[in-house]
Amino acid sequence: MAGPVKLRPATERDVPTILGLIRGIAEYERLSHEVEATEALLREHGFGRRPVYEAILAERDGRAVGFALYFFSFSTFKARPTLYLEDLFVIPAERRGGIGSHLLTRLAQIAVVAAVALAVAGGAQKANALITTPGELERIADLPARGWWSGDL
Fold first, then answer.
1. CA angle, 103 as apex, 86 and 21 as ends, to 5°?
2. Full-prediction pTM beyond 0.70?
3. Separation between Cα atoms, residue 40 and residue 137, nearest integer Å
4. Least confident of 1-10, 120-129, 144-153
5. Is 105 buried (19+), middle (13-18) or exposed (0-12) by CB count in 10 A?
6. Based on CB atoms within 10 Å of each CB, which residue in 23, 28, 56, 98 is the most buried?
7. CA-to-CA separations, 21 to 1, 13, 39, 67, 81, in angstroms, rounded
């Protein structure tokens, strides 16, 4: 029987794993030919002098099964920051088990703590959302406490 899914912030040593998951997204979307990402670029932009992205890894039994890559942006009109979800991916063998929802819940929790909005961009599934009110974010962030997810947060 497989162990529980655990989430953790990605570190510099996870760069090869992040690149593999990015390639997994590209393969899923039939866009492998467009991937220009390299370990060197991911290391520089995520863990260099001025990191511009962060990532959360979902792992089962010590193996990465998904991730969410995000960054913070700033709206000049609203004069507020936003946590922007760039990509969320779960490997095909692990889908339909709530891992994607678990990752999204973690992002909402981060947004609540940082007091920012959460933006989810369209991708292969064409999903778009901007969650701006504290009540909406807290409702998503509080799902594990209400028994929605029984895994280890």
1. 60
2. yes
3. 34
4. 144-153
5. buried
6. 56
7. 24, 14, 12, 7, 27
Q: How far apart are CA 101 and CA 78, in angstroms?
A: 28
| Amino acid symbol at 51 | P
Q: Which residues of 43-82 are buried (b: 16+ CB within 10 A; e: fewer)?
A: beebbeeeeebbbbbbbbeeebbbbbbbbeeeeeeeeeeb
User: Helices (DSSP H) in the chain: which residue ranges?
Assistant: 15-28, 39-47, 99-114, 134-141
Count CB-CB contacts under 10 A for residue 144.
16
DSSP 34: G
What DSSP letter does each residue of 118-134 carry, written as one string?
A: EEE---TT---EEE-SH
Burial class (CB within 10 angstroms; exposed 0-12, middle 13-18, buried 19+) of 86? middle
Two tokens at 41?
């670029």
- Residue 6 pairs in a beta bridge with 59, 152
Backbone φ and ψ of 24, nearest 5° = -65, -40
Q: What is the pLDDT of residues 43-54, one digit of tens each?
A: 999 999 999 999
